[in-house]
Amino acid sequence: MNASGEPLSRPPVTLASGLAFLALSTLALSSVSSVSALALEAGSAPAAIVAQAAPARALTTPLEAFGHEVGADYRLITYTQFERYLHALAGQSDRMKLLEIGKSSEGRTQYLSVVSSPQNLANIDRYQEIARRLAKAEGVSEEEARALAAEGKAVVWIDGGLHSTETVPPQALIAALYEWLTAEDAEAKRILDDVVILFAPLNPDGWELVSTWYMRNEDPLKREYASIPRLYQKYVGHDNNRDYYLSAMAETTNVNRQFFREWFPQIIYNHHQTAPAGTVVFMPPFRDPFNYNYDPLVMSTLSEVGAAMHSRLIEEGKPGSTMRSGANYSTWNNGMERSVTYFHNAVGLLTEITGHPTPSQISLIPDNQLPRNDLPMPVAPQTWRFAQSIEYSQSINRAVLNYASRNKDRVLFNIWRMGQNAIDKGNADTWRVTPSAIDALNAAAGENARRVDPALYESVLRDPARRDPRGYVIPADQADLPTAVAFLNSLIKTGVDVERATRAFTIGGKRYPAGSYVVKTAQAYRPHVLDMFEPQDHPHDLQYPGGPPKLPYDATGYTLAMQMGVQFDRILDGFEAPLERVADVMAPPPGRIEGNGRAGWLIDHAPINGYVLTNRLLAAGAPVFWQEGETRAGRQTLAPGALWIPADDKARPIVEAAVRELGLNAHAVARAPGGERIALKPVRVGLVDRYGGSMASGWTQWMLEQFEYPFEIIYPQRLDAGDLNKDFDVLVFASDMIPADLSAAAQRDQPTPDSIPSEYRGWLGHITAEKTVPQIDAFARAGGSVVTIGSAHRLAAAMGAPVQDVLTGADGKPVASTDFFIPGAVMQTEVDNSLPLTFGAPSRMNVFFNRNAGFRHAGEGASMVRYPQKVEVSSGWAIGAEKLSGADAVLDLEHGQGRVIVLGPDVVNRAQARASSRLLFNALFYGPAASRAED
Is 490 helix (H, G, I), strand (E, B) or coil? Predict the structure, then answer.
């Protein structure tokens, strides 16, 4: 019995007694209605109904569907099988409504199963509307909120499979769905009456890849998925759980729409694995640091739900759950699925459970046998079965759902309360207290730190200059409006309200043109707005006073507006403007063609969409040039790098389409401009990857596709074969591609060729100093361009290029973390934008620095991008940042007849660093063009 007197029993998940396998294709599926694939842009398409709740009938069991129970040893159910089973259940159950919410990156359908009582499903549109009104809070009084909370149903999201080699969550999702469609115990019936459950598979492509790879061996003892040949998400693999504020991937956008634009769940439960050693599962609450932007009610409620989760396992005699100090997970970074919810006033849950379809071991960790607050019931070392992990997962689901049921009215009302708090704060003078404010307070207190004058609270912590903004204005006349629109689309995808000016307006004496955008902070998702515009002020988090830093869970500074180079103004006082709400994601506003000359077009280099235009022109065989100096275009003077496109029949429709669709402005001129220019040519780009896949290369691939660069993915065997100039003009090495030790023995193991299908054997191999580096060196000396990003600068040094890392000591070892530590932060640089590599960049540019390098180089090719003498951290945490004082961030080095271009910061950074991505795009064109010019 639980504390409420209800039985804890539920349908058991039993271990399969045999290994017989029944393909789901043999299952006779009930006919269900279907819809065609959605053709709309990800983020703008509402969910499509695949099947309404059906009259109750006997449900196909997992055993009948798959030939074994969920959680059977040595068995994984594929996504294809699960998809068919979904349709079968939707046609059989009156507790389920099946929705199609979009397509995956590889084109598979992503589903959402809406599960509740038949009575609730009959009124589901009303409950969905209640959830929306309470979450957005706009125009809802407290009295109305309480009435809506009493009428509504709690909405709880439960998912699985985001990280596909974490195989417990997707398999547990199958068991959970069947359980909640069939459970008849008193607790379950109450939950189904009070709660709408949303079950969602997050990564269909990865689920299919990993499960089919594991099952490919007939011998169960040989089954494994450690050797999968590529990332389990088409582009970004594990980083699909770092995409939730940018929302670049199709799957992320599908999910964000359900969270913040369709269903507005109050609790979002993201299942993961693996557990810390010597435990079974990590569950909330999490360790500090606490992000200073979200409502504290989020964290207090998170602790409540976490306590319910731990208590449920202990009540059921299930040991081994840990929290807080049991692992490194924090609530600082906004990019993860469960953490983006905090910035939207929802409770995000993460569990990390042990388990594997091949029986595994719970290890003996002596310290984890001693009970403590963060590990109240240790688990004994033992052989661990897959089914045990499934059972734990179902128990934790029950705990979460029981909490939502018992606290239904509170859960619903509190999401309104947090939303209303945000609106109220956005309409008043408010101050967030962050570490820098406390530093200022301590400085003002001086030696009287133990007896601080209370008046300093008002004079320091309530300093008018430190006020939070009432809103942000994004001017329509900024140099790269299409990128600003891309940034705003990320906000819209995550539910933020964006407005557009219908006519020109003035705030604080500054005039803004019609078409400018405004993001007000007086909205429910104010915490997310602040986090995307304002610097992250991370605490100085040391293991002990004077000791080394604690490793943060992810980047400490990531302000998206800064990374993307968006120009915006912070408005500290209340303001009014003629605005209209933007309904959905936007295309860039159409540009214009100025003048009527017929010689050709001049286009400023600053808008990043110019690279799309350039690639389209080159693909069509039309000439494109970069003007090396300033260029007059009518009354304007364009900065160095302006595109010159001579008029011809090929170019005209491409330019006109770019102006219309890409938001570019073109100057039609009567004569060709004077001055030196660089002739661009189609480039043959080789993007280097490895067996198993590189996330950094995957993000780079996605970026190249978005900007329509032609490229080929190549692997170490092709590099080792040499004669690279025959096929490539440029080789690109992403930030995680070059290890510190370039010996094969030091790099991660790979499968033997005969153990994998033949189509993947050419992907095997390592980049080594002995075999690979000489071939890359020969490529550059023969006229090729080598472009390294971030930590791949090690390759330049291995090639003998004059690259000196200022962060390396005299002994050749990195500086100690007590002296220098920047674990993901946004840094300010100074830019000489008169040079080809920096064309289009502003004179001061934010870059993303993640344990990268700064350089000393006295020769040519240096000082085009460098850190200021007084180093500035725009967002995030840095120890010893002054060591970068005056250091070069980018090097352009001649190497024989070719070039080595070293981009020191991570100029891609999960597709977020749009401001500095132009350095990569320029390098792809410039290196080959410069090499040809010197021939």
Answer: helix
